[in-house]
Design brief:
The chain has 151 residues and is an all-alpha fold. It has one domain. The radius of gyration is 16 Å and the shape is elongated.
Length: 151
């Protein structure tokens, strides 16, 4: 099962490799607190390793259950964000996606805690990063209303 989990996370991460920031993103106004570009792949690589370990810990202890289902579900908005933000240039939909992701990550932490404290703790940096990502998404959207694709 750990190999399946690794593959699922690799596929999720691949969305960020396919839908890259590019010239459109570089041309947007961004807040001064935006992390430098090199930070994103470093942080995401670390988080993806932690996501796999956390999922494995929950799977090993409890198998199919609420915590593992939440672990699986959080991969979907994680995968979709780069497509929505960079691919479609829909900062509004990307923000909604990030809120959904935040809820799923927080839900996983709560559901995993009684199963594996370490699994829950490994998701805390992820929750913090998604919080920062949501704030950045919102701020960039507000600073660039002209750059967002319309429905």
């Amino acid at each position: 099962m750990v190999i399946v989990m690794i593959l699922l996370v690799v596929v999720t991460a691949a969305s960020g490799a396919v839908f890259k920031p590019g010239a459109w993103y570089e041309g947007l106004d961004k807040p001064v607190w935006t992390p430098p570009n090199w930070v994103f792949p470093v942080v995401w690589t670390t988080l993806y390793v932690m996501i796999v370990i956390s999922g494995w810990l929950v799977w090993r202890e409890a198998g199919w259950g609420l915590a593992f289902v939440l672990w699986l579900l959080q991969l979907i908005p994680n995968f979709l964000w780069s497509f929505l933000f960079f691919g479609l240039r829909r900062m509004d939909l990307a923000l909604i996606d990030t809120v959904i992701l935040w809820c799923l990550v927080a839900g996983f932490i709560a559901a995993a805690w009684p199963i594996s404290v370490w699994a829950a703790i490994l998701f805390v940096p992820y929750l913090l990063w998604v919080t920062l990502a949501a704030l950045l998404n919102l701020t960039v959207w507000r600073m660039n209303p002209h750059a967002a694709a319309s429905p």
